[in-house]
Amino acid sequence: MNELKAREAAEYIQHSTATIPKIGLILGSGLGALADEIEQPVRLPYQSIPGFPVSTVTGHAGHLVIGRLEGKPVAAMQGRFHFYEGYSIEKVTFPVHVMRLIGVETLIITNAAGGINKTFSPGDLMVITDHINNMGFKPFLQAKSYRPSEIYTKQFITLAEIVAEKIGLKINKGVYVGNSGPSYETPAEIHMLEKLGGDAVGMSTIPEAITAHQHGMNVLGISCISNMAAGILDQPLNHEEVIETANKVKIDFIRFVKEILRDL
């Protein structure tokens, strides 16, 4: 990671807004509508921030939005970067380094994922309790501070359960599997991941979660089950289905995350 580049990006953001965000949000495919709820927003296109990559995937708007949400100062990424877009792992995790420099202490990471667990249905929300890194790489900064068993903050998982019960929202908990992409998995691969203990599969989140943990941030991960993974149902997969399901569930998703923010 280029510390100088990260500091340059952080200084640009800090000169663009008086808000010091304490909570960061990474909003996955089709879930960027939450950023539209931010009050008094400062909206920075990624291409205007020094060192930031640009989102190329449908459903990722490509803005950093800073303001207040449920009274809390936040920085929300409307879209993320993926290894399969051709970006290095350093570029994928660059925004997390920058968030740390501008004051973020808690990172909420969201994604659209394929359901492996047969009790799940498209449109379900899953709080991530752990992950299986099947990407073939991992970001690594500070070996002494890296405790992989503690990446997803237990207190925040409990808080998410309490909030879901309070608002009458059914949620699942489970293990997220991260693959490098860009192709969807084969039915045989999904069967293997099921045997390994995976509940949902996607192509993001893990690099950002590890990096945030290395920086001492609290981490909460939430997956929107946008489709059932290959071989679970007898139907083809496509990205349009991912976006369509995310749009259908966005009201519950927004309400859920806003309630979590209110109780943090």
Number of strands: 9
Characterize the largest beta sheet: strand count, sense, and whether it forms a barrel.
5 strands, mixed, barrel
Compute the number of structural domains. Answer: 1
- What is the H/E string? HEEEEHEEHEHEHEH
What's this model, at a glance?
With 264 residues, this protein is α/β, with parallel strands linked by helices.
Write the topology of this structure.
Layout: H1 3-16, E1 23-27, E2 39-45, E3 63-69, E4 72-78, H2 89-102, E5 106-115, E6 125-134, H3 154-167, E7 171-179, H4 187-196, E8 200-202, H5 206-214, E9 218-228, H6 239-263
Parallel strand pairs: 1-4, 1-5, 5-9, 6-7, 7-8
Antiparallel strand pairs: 2-3, 3-4, 5-8, 6-9
Helix pairs in contact: 1-2, 2-5, 3-6
EC number: 2.4.2.1
GO molecular function, one term: purine-nucleoside phosphorylase activity
Organism: Pueribacillus theae
What would you note in describing this structure?
The protein contains 6 helices and 9 strands. Helix 1 (3-16) crosses helix 2 (89-102), helix 2 (89-102) packs across helix 5 (206-214) and helix 3 (154-167) crosses helix 6 (239-263). A 5-stranded mixed barrel has the order 5-8-7-6-9. Helices cover 33% and strands 26% of the residues. The chain starts with a helix and ends with a helix. With 264 residues, it is α/β, with parallel strands linked by helices. The longest helix is centred in the last third of the chain and has 25 residues, at 239-263. Residues 22-262 form the Nucleoside phosphorylase domain. Keywords: Glycosyltransferase, Transferase. It comes from Pueribacillus theae.
